[in-house]
Design goal:
The complex is a heterotrimer, with 1 copy of chain A (about 270 residues) and 2 copies of chain B (about 200 residues). Chain A is mostly helical. Helix content of chain A is about 50%, strand content about 10%. Chain A starts with a strand and ends with a helix. Chain B has 2 domains: about 5-70, Orthogonal Bundle (Arc Repressor Mutant, subunit A), CATH 1.10.10.10; about 90-170, Arc Repressor Mutant, subunit A (Orthogonal Bundle). In chain B, the strands form 2 sheets. A 3-stranded antiparallel sheet of chain B has the order 1-3-2. In chain B, strands 4-6-5 form a 3-stranded antiparallel sheet. The chains are: A mainly alpha (about 270), B alpha+beta (about 200). Chains A and C meet through α6, α7, α8, α9 and α10 of A and α1, β3, α4, α5 and α6 of C.
Chain lengths: ~270, ~200, ~200
């Protein structure tokens, strides 16, 4: 977000840079600034005089700099886009002469973006005008007294993914560095594969080594699957046997997990 | 006299979040879905006709009793919590996510022309936007969508009850000529059908 | 039409505890105490006459909307299926298991700095966490991981779809410049197909 200077009365901004007439507001970005310039000059958005608008845009940025307002990088990117469009318009188009390929108007992309942005800006204004819960309209937001005596029972869980990751993030923020580093994408997929492979083996009772490498020949998956099997071995969660020399390798679960009765084993310990 | 309309009324009244028709049907399995729907309509009409401060509103896909905006002035005196406020950048981001979901951060930023990471994050924290998963393109970027809470907050029944982008544009400036037709921006249908 | 009776109605409706006459008088200082008392009486009569499930009751000296006892039976069904509250400690534990699996209880406790037996147990009961096996170290502690139900709860295809910390942290930072530039605007279809 950058600062908008609203000129009052109109037209003052570029002619007379008197700070007294400048009010501070905010622009949401380069597209917003461009729309403002188009509206102010009553230009046809479908036929923007690029040279003119570029000049005004640059003047604006210069003014912001003179006023020591921070000019966000996006504004500069747009400035160079405008200059590029301007120079492309100055070049004679080769395709026109040949007559076959008609080149797209260099402004087309910008016009599309401006129109699109204009729509969402209008949509955001509609959102702003809606009856907001807690501002225009209110609901009962508390544990209803009628239900207080009735203890809540287990129903379906309601949890948002972001809550989960946010909890983890906050937790790690409190932790020493050393404990943090290993949360990488590849660790994730090995963990994922470990659970998959284990579930598969437990499910079948016995699984063929080759079966685990069946789905797709993706090299990455092969490696990850292999690492998962090694890890499962290391953790002694599966046994690997070979029934004869060069025979098929069999994987069997070493531990039959009983999720229904876990507390007896460790949780109370 | 205990009849369905009153039962439904009591359920919605004590529920701490909008109550969905589906949920009511599960709770009141001795009644038909059609009957329950009728009771909801009758109840909505009752509250309108009563002319009280409370109406039965359909928000976020469910039913909830809400006060009419006329009373906000008085209710502000009662509640300690400050009313929700939104920056223009948050509203633009929410509008884009609402109309274009599922959408990636890069797509939101392209449409707005500015960085949106911070805004997206605060929308996630406020639970107005949620992570829908990852997009099946290289890099697997996260994709975002709006939440039930978003609909509740903005008193929207569902995403389809957002004005279509065509309607939105009609409210803005009229384009000077027909040239507009040439630009393939129309995704109104997509937004409408894309829902659920 | 905004009149006193409706104002009082809205206040009592939104208030999270019975509202006392004195309090209402303070909130509505532009009205006389006598008027307010009359409005309360009229409102009480209104609700009685309506014959709905809700009445305006005087409880402990204050005013509060309550459901009639006839509906208790139905309201009980509502509480029975209320989503259970997920405590912060349960959330933290679940997050650790999700991101660090396979993991032992001792490791979870090291990360959280507190005993996690109870929370782990409740995660197991909710079938969000399961025992993967035993770790090959002295004492052979159990190791935990998440379940299929966990993935379903968050609509995740697999664990690899779980957003990484880096991805969420990246929201607070500026994206690299290229990311923003290369997007074509006509991404309607692409976006639509992105969803299954």
């Amino acid at each position: 977000m950058t600062t908008r200077l609203t000129e009052e009365p109109t037209g003052l901004l570029f002619d007379d840079r008197s700070l007294y007439s400048v009010k501070l507001e905010s622009f949401e970005g380069p597209l917003d600034l461009l729309l403002h310039l188009i509206r102010k000059n009553e230009l046809n958005i479908y036929d923007i005089p690029i040279a003119d608008i570029t000049r005004q845009y640059l003047e604006y940025i210069q003014l912001m700099e003179e006023l020591n307002l921070e000019v966000a990088g996006e504004f500069l990117v747009m400035a160079s886009t405008l200059l590029q469009i301007k120079s492309r318009l100055l070049l004679p188009t080769a395709s026109d002469e040949e007559g076959n390929e008609e080149e797209e108007d260099p402004r087309a992309e910008l016009v599309r973006r401006l129109l699109e942005y204009q729509r969402y800006k209008a949509a955001s204004l509609l959102l702003r005008e809606r009856d907001l819960l807690g501002r225009e309209t209110f609901a009962r937001k508390f544990d209803p007294p009628d239900l207080i005596d009735l203890a809540p029972d287990e129903g379906p869980l309601e949890l948002e993914l972001f809550q989960l990751i946010d909890a983890f993030r906050k937790l790690l923020a409190k932790m020493p560095e050393a404990a943090i580093h290993q949360v990488a994408a590849d660790t994730m997929s090995i963990a994922d594969r470990i659970t998959q492979v284990l579930a598969f083996i437990v499910d079948r009772g016995t699984a063929l080594f080759d079966e685990l490498f069946d789905e797709g020949c993706n090299r990455e998956l092969l490696v990850v699957t292999f690492l998962a099997i090694l890890e499962l071995c290391k953790l002694r969660m599966i046994n690997i046997v070979q029934d004869e020399r060069y025979g098929s390798i069999l994987l069997t679960p070493a531990v039959i997990a009983e999720p229904d009765d876990p507390e007896g084993v460790e949780l109370n310990g | 006299m205990v009849d369905l309309k009153q039962i439904v009324e009591s359920l919605i009244f004590v529920s701490d979040a909008p109550l969905f028709l589906d949920r009511i049907c599960v709770l009141l399995e001795e009644y038909e879905r059609g009957e329950i729907r009728e009771a909801l309509m009758a109840l909505t009409a009752d509250y309108r006709l009563r002319g009280g401060a409370i109406i039965l509103a359909e928000v976020g896909g469910g039913y909830q009793f809400r006060t009419l905006p006329e009373y906000a002035e008085y209710l502000k005196r009662l509640t300690k919590s400050r009313p929700p406020k939104f920056s223009q950048s948050a509203l633009e981001t929410l509008a884009i996510v609402a109309y274009r979901q599922p959408i990636t951060r890069a797509e939101v930023e392209y449409l707005r022309g500015v960085d949106c990471g911070g805004v997206l994050k605060s929308c996630l924290e406020k639970r107005l936007v949620r992570i829908l998963g990852k997009k099946d393109v290289p890099g697997r970027p996260l994709i975002y969508g709006t939440t039930k809470e978003f609909l509740e907050l903005f008193s929207l029944r569902d995403l389809a009850s957002l004005p279509t982008l065509k309607e939105v544009q009609a409210l803005g400036e009229r384009p000077p000529d027909e040239e507009q037709q040439e630009l393939p921006l129309g995704m109104e249908e997509e937004v409408e059908n894309g829902e659920e």
